[in-house]
Structure formats: structure tokens, C-alpha cells
Amino acid sequence: MRIALLDDESKENDNLCALIDAYAVQRKYDIVCEKFTSGRELLLHDRFDLYFLDYVMDEMNGIAVGQALNERFSGAVTICYLTGIEGAASEIINAEIGAVGFLTKPVSAELLYKKLDRFYSTSFGGHLQLKKGRVTETVYAQEIFYAEAADKRTRIHFRLSEEVYHHSFSETERILSDLPYFCRIHRSYIINMLHVKAYDVKSVMMTNGDVLPLKTKDFAKIYRNFVFNETKD
């Protein structure tokens, strides 16, 4: 796995890299960290599996970098923000970046490891077996943007395509219920919260631009807990 670390203070990058290296040794994972002190330099590189972006930087702040990454890679990026500023969590959510993580500085090894464990479980696990006619396909759960009821079947939307599978919507909900990043927001829609760009009281916008109706009254709490509540990890 390739991880990008962005902080305009080299010492902060070094400290975080040391924690991630220790995690990799403990879990026996193959992880390579690349350190950047400039957002503009980071944006010149190909997509990383995971980004840790400092919230406050002089040249180009973390929100601007996150927005640029989402635009360049069509929302297919995983970002965790780092900051010591109180109240930054709400601003990050309101910036419509689609962040899937948030850690305060100085970074706690325990909380960092929880974030990395979640990333591994969602990115390198969660392979689903879905039926399409007489064929059973293996679907990578993280690549699902949302599921939509389609008569007695289910239409699965990906970043650049959609497929209809021979599962009822209730059966699809049962299949997805074991994964913590899926949430039913409407009688006809189940979304992947890893791909949420923005939401209001009536709708949810996904990072591919699709806007879906929202009927779940406590969605704001569910989403905030998913992104920021470490007890859910």
C-alpha cells in the first residue's frame, strides 16, 4: 500500500511516518510512505491508496488539496485529515471533500492504528459475491457508490458504470449490512459513505455527482459518527 503524507513541517511527516512504519511491522503489512511538504508537489504524482493531509498549511491548505485530488481522480481517493484546531471537523465536512477520517495532532498511535485497520478492512476486504443471471460475479465493495432498487432486482452504481444484479433490494441490504460504510438513506437507496461528497436535509450528493433523495432523519449523526467517532472503528 502507498500512503502520501502531506505536512509543511517535515518533522510532523517524519513522526507520522515512524508511527505507520511501526504499524506495518506489527501487522506484517507492506506499506510505503512518501512524504510531501507542498500540496502542489503532491498533486503531480499518481494516485495513492491513502492520503494524510495537514489541515493548515501556508501555501495550499489541506482542504484545497483534498478538493483538487477529488477532482483529478473523480472522487476515488481516501483522505484522512490531521489538525490540532478545535472545530475543524465541522468545517472539513462542510467543505464537501468527502473525507473519511480525521485525527487531531499530535497523532495518537492508538487512534491512528484504528484508522489504518478500518482502511484495510474496507479497502482490502469486503469482496461480495453477487448473482447476475446464471453468473456469480465478485464485486469489490468499496467500489460500489450506491445500490438502487430496480423492480425485483438491484442496480449497483459504480464510478463509471452500473450493473443490475439478481438480488432483491432487501437481500442486497442484508449483504451490505455487515460493512460499516453502507447506509440506507431511502426506501430505494443504500449508499457507500466513503463516496459522500455533501448532503443536506433532503438529499445526498455522491462524489460522482449523483444526487439521491434522503429520508433518513438521523443521517447527519450517522455520517459524522462514521467519519469522526473513533469508538465506531
> How does CATH name the architecture of the largest domain?
3-Layer(aba) Sandwich
N/C terminus separation? 20 Å
Estimated share of beta-strand residues: 25-35%
CATH class label of the largest domain: Alpha Beta
User: Might you state the CATH topology name of the largest domain?
Assistant: Rossmann fold
**Structure annotation, total helices:** 7
> Could you say which structural class the secondary elements and strand pairing correspond to?
alpha/beta
List unreliable stretches of 5+ residues. Answer: none
Characterize the overall form. globular
> Topology as H/E string?
EHEHEHEHEHEEEEEHEEEEEH
Notes on the structure:
The chain has 233 residues and is α/β, with parallel strands linked by helices. It folds into two domains: 2-123, Rossmann fold, CATH 3.40.50; 127-228, LytTr DNA-binding domain (OB fold (Dihydrolipoamide Acetyltransferase, E2P), Beta Barrel), CATH 2.40.50. Helix content is 31%, strand content 30%. It is built from seven helices and 15 strands. The chain has a five-stranded parallel β-sheet, sandwiched between helices. The protein has a five-stranded antiparallel β-sheet with strand order 10-9-8-12-11, with helices on one face. Strand 9 and strand 10 form a beta hairpin. The longest helix is centred in the N-terminal third of the chain and has 18 residues, at 10-27. The radius of gyration is 18 Å and the shape is globular. The two termini are 20 Å apart.
